């Protein structure tokens, strides 16, 4: 199995978590790599803004001398959870707004942590 197919399988494993409707792998530079974004969303904008939000949160947490767990954006009908996936990537996870976002972030981090992404 090629690396992209393996990463796709890992993203599907995360998407199979309860309340998760989509997950995307994004570079920390803001480029969409793989996965799915919500319908009607501009993939490039979603990826860029996700990277900016996670980067800003990491900078803030460093100033506070603490480690960042995840970034959570609570919307009316859904939530977006941003989780670091190594030094070059992040995950943007969309949920139905009914999940325990800390648990989803932790589980997703554990799942993606099993893979070394070299693309």
Set out the fold topology:
Layout: H1 3-15, E1 20-27, E2 32-35, H2 43-63, E3 71-74, E4 79-85, E5 89-95, H3 101-113
Antiparallel strand pairs: 1-2, 1-5, 3-4, 4-5
Characterization of the model:
It is built from 3 helices and 5 strands, in the order H-E-E-H-E-E-E-H. The chain has 119 residues and is an alpha+beta fold. A 5-stranded antiparallel sheet has the order 2-1-5-4-3, with helices on both faces. The relative contact order is 0.21. The mean pLDDT is 94.
Question: Which properties best describe this structure?
Answer:
Beta-Lactamase; globular; 3 helices; 119 residues
What's a concise summary of this model?
This protein is 39% helix and 25% strand. It has 3 helices and 5 strands.
CATH fold group: Beta-Lactamase
CATH class: Alpha Beta
Q: How many strand segments? A: 5
Helix and strand pattern:
HEEHEEEH
The N- and C-terminal alpha carbons lie at a distance of: 14 Å
Tally of distinct domains = 1
